[in-house]
Every structure is written in structure tokens, then in C-alpha cells.
What does this fold into?
Amino acid sequence: MKLYTLFNFKKSIPMLIVALMCTSCSDDFLVDELLSDTSVDFLYSTPQGLESAVVGLYTLNRQIYEDNSLNGAYPLILQAKSDLGVGITGEVSLYSRLLWGASLGDFGTESGLNKYWVHFYKIVDRANAIIEAAEKLEGIDEDRRNQILSEARCMRANSIFTLYRCFNNIFVSTVPTTPENAFEVPRDKSSVEDIFSLVKSDLGFAIDHLDYSTPQFGRWNQGAARHLRAKVAMWEGDWTEAATQTDAVITSGNFSLVPTAKEVFAGELDHSETLFAVNFKNETIGGGSYHIMNWNVVSSSAEAPGVIQSVENGGAGVGFLSLNDYTINLLNEDPNDERKNGTYYIFEYLYNDEETLPAGKTIGQPLDLYENSPTDQNEFMLYYRRQNPGVLKFFDNEVEPTDRNHYKNVMIYRLAETYLIGAEAHMMLGDDGTALQYLNTVRTRANVAPKAAIDLQTILDERARELAFEGQRWFTLKRTGKLYEFLLDHMNNDNMNESYPEGNPKVILKEYMENWPIPPQQIDLLGPSYPQNDGYN
It folds into this structure.
């Protein structure tokens, strides 16, 4: 079956050529370099061209994070739809409120959800072209061929797995789009067996041929491929495979948790815990574009008297989306938890402006002017916008604190999650000893007391503390069958839910929303026989 990527083919070719006019030329990072003689023939008929095309996949992969449409809502949709955040205001909050992205007729489906569909299918299509060309290319060193194939197959597997988890009714193929087949349209979804067979085949090949280390930060490596393979196995309920893959990464000697929580999201993320990250730093993968993710998830504390924007206060923030009470309470369970003290999250914004300091306050004292009132909307909105704990995982401390445009690399997969996947897999296999060992390795690094017993709730709670706002939570709850239950219990916060003019999202929420609606413009292109997800017809 032909893969139909549903974007204008004639317009896409020049764009893709521009995106792929790149090669790797840095000792430390994956770097884009303009090649004046780049052409489609060059890209797919020479080893150097194929390597350039692979780097172009990383450029394409980054695009959803750097898309600042709708005030930067797109890269935070998964975070907004999870049970760990509260939508306060701004475009991204509309996904938390289920005003967007929960029906066929809303703008959020036609914009943001459509963005995900097109984005990941575009990666799949370009990966297909690279894989087909690399398999056919003659006279290329086999190690070089296998490196090209492994990275392209990782990109394809990751994109297909993401599409499946979001949209459920997806189609897959290994045939790249050409002018000759661009209008061949799939009439039905692919079977779950076909989807997972392709993903597992891609990752199996990559595991067999990738090294654990890479010469350039930002490329797929064997550890990242095994980590993703473990996530796929967890989705299938294959606990043995998941345990095997996580054990292999943990015991490989190539990765380790950084010593303190403060180091996890410091600098460029180029450290022993990172398995896979998206590069944004200057002169990496496309010249250093920026994102505004931090701006969305850090409170606008500088609007309060006595506070100005500073590195210590998380830089420029608008506070459209933030931690909800459920997550805050989880992090507050242990007073020694170091993840909340200006490392992963920011729980306190400090007075730092003598000129506007309120009477009775001192420099360095935490901002405490606002109360999260259960009923007074004026009061709790000031609290949420200016004082609510925020997220520092996207914060670039090298830019001016007044600048919302950040070049911070974005963490996708890291070893702490590998430990937590391993903990769950071993628990499901009845090996509570190894499960606790893995769980407590993560907890010990955060300076919290070890657990003596383990169950699914314990693991989900630790994943919330450790991985909140990294884009994994929504998938984890869907996989474990907890998504509807957890959202109904604690999505957003009660006072915010009651204040939304369109109604309480807990009332709007339906179980079928665990699958995103396939955007109507895609159904229009696929045809009336293509199956929309249940509940949206």
C-alpha cells in the first residue's frame, strides 16, 4: 500500500531540498551546511547525498518544536492534554480545556492536530525515500549504508509509533511519494499487526547496527533505539522484551544518570543521561532556530511588584500552561525533593527589584502576594499567571532573561525514563526486587527516600514527578488504561475548570477522546471510506 503523506507534492519538493541541503561537519553536534550542488539526484544517488538527507530528517523532526504559530502551542499539545498541567490562558490552554483538539469542528483539530499528522507523515515519507535509495545504492561501504539505514529507520519508527499512539487509525507503507504515485490514496487503516511489525523491524535493524556512542550529539544511537523498542514492547504488554531492552541500556556502561537533578537540564543536555534530544543550539541542525516553550510554562512573575525578569526566576514567562495541584502535591510529598528547587521546576519566584518592592518584603524572599483561592476568580487568576510553580525543562539560561526566544535543546528520551520503564516491566514479571532497585535509583538522585514496596500507582507517581512536561505522560496513561480515569479525577484544577466559559472539561471529557480525531482535511483527502476514530463521526 502506498503511503500518502497528504501535503502538496509539487510544493514540498523544493522545501524538502532546502531542508536536506545539509551534511554533518562538527566534532560535537549535528550541523547543517548548505551544499550548492544539492539536488534530488545527488541526495538519493550518492553516499554523501544520503548522509545529507539523513541530517535533513533531524531538521524535519525539529520543525514541530520550533513552530511558534498560535504563540508556540503546537509542541506543548501533549503536555496540555495530560493530567499534570493546568491550562490558564492563551492558545495552548484551549487544548487543556478541551475547547480545541477534542472534536472535528474545532480550530485546534484543524490546526494543531493536523500539524502532528502532517509533520510525522512527512518524516515517514522522507525516511522511506532514504531507505529505498540506500538499499539500492551500489558501491557503498556496508557500514556506511547500515548507518544511513539505521538512523532513517529510527526516525520512521519513532514517527509511526507517535502517529499510532495519537491517532490510532493510521496507515503505513514503505513506499516513498513520487510524482507518479502522489495521488494514490489509502482507503483503509493499517492493521495493528502491520504497524507494530514495521516499527519493530526498523528498531531491530537499528539496534543491530548502531553504536551506543555517536560522534555528534543529536543522532540516534543504540541506547535510544533500545529505549524506544522498550516503549513499543510496553505498549504490546511484552514485559520480557521491555525488561531485556532496558536492562541492556542500563548495564551497557555507556549511559548513567547525572549525579544531581540540577545537572539533568543544564546546558546543552550533552551528558551521560541523554539518549535522544532535539538540537536548537546555534549552528546545529539548521542554524539554530528558536522555540518559545519556556515562555509558555513559566509564570509571568515580573508582572508582580518587586520582581523583574531574571535567570533565577526562569526568564521571560507568560504562564499559559503550568503545573497543576496534583503534580505540585506529588512533588511536595518529600520536602527534600530536589526536582522542585529551580532544577526541573520552579516553585518560588524571588523578589529582586528594590525600586518596586512592596512594603514589608525583602530582596530574596519568595513572591507571596497571591492566593490560589477556590472561588475568587480575580485572585486565583493573578496567582496562576504570576506565582504558580512552573517548568524549567526548556529554559535557556544563556539568553537575556527578557527574551522569550530560547535555543535550549529539547530532551526527548533519557535514562531516567529507561529506569522507570524497566521498573514497570520487572514489576509486571514479578521481579519486585529489580523493579524497586530501578525505581529507587531515580528517587535517590532526586534526594528523596527510597520506596519499600511497588505497584503501578507508585510507578505512575514517580513518572509524574520525574518526567512531567517531557511529552510522555499522555501516552503512558493511555497505554496503562488510566487516561480517562486520571483526567476525570484531576485534570487542570477545580477552580480553573469551573471558570472556563465553555464549561467544565471534566463534563466535556469522553472516553473515546483517548484517540485524537483524524483532522477533517485529512479525511477529505483520504475519502469517505477511510475510518474516522470512534466518537467523532
